[in-house]
Amino acid sequence: MMNKQEEIEAPMKEVAEFYLKQDGVLAVHYIKRTHRQKDFNAVKEGDLPIRLKRNVGKEPMSCIGNW
Predict the structure, then answer these.
(1) pLDDT, tens digit, for every residue of 6-50?
(2) pTM > 0.85: yes or no
(3) What are phi and psi for residue 43, nearest 5 degrees?
(4) Do residues 47 and 7 lie in contact, with contact meaning Cβ atoms separated by under 8 Å?
(5) pLDDT reported for residue 41
(6) Torsion sign (Cα): 19, 25, 8, 59
(7) β-bridge mates for residue 28, sequence order
(8) Cα four-point dihedral sign 18, 20, 24, 25
(9) Residue 28's CB: how many other CB atoms inside 10 A?
(10) Is 60 within 8 Å of 33 (Cβ atoms)?
(11) Under a CB-based contact definition with an 8 Å cutoff, are residues 27 and 21 in contact?
């Protein structure tokens, strides 16, 4: 039986393998997100990011690829 962390990571590993098979993809990494921006203008204006609240059973992740 998988624990919650393994359950979250399993689909991400499948997606990473898919991306790595595509032409021109050098690497795929996932990072845990701790903050988010309100919108794109907030980035341009230099506003501070909003800290993500903890949602039980969910891990906010972002995919970062090198193409």
Answers:
(1) 787 888 888 889 988 989 888 888 777 777 777 778 778 888 787
(2) no
(3) -65, -45
(4) no
(5) 82
(6) negative
(7) 65
(8) positive
(9) 19
(10) yes
(11) no
Q: Cα separation of 9 and 53, whole Å?
A: 20
Q: Among the residues of the chain, which ranges form H helices?
A: 4-20, 40-45
Measuring CA to CA, which residue among 39, 30, 33 is closest to residue 60?
33
pLDDT score for 28: 85
Give the Å distances, CA to CA, from 56 to 4, 5, 34: 10, 12, 14
Q: What is the structure's pLDDT at 67?
A: 53
Give the whole-angstrom CA distance, residue 29 versus residue 51: 21
* Residues 63/32, Cβ–Cβ less than 8 Å: no
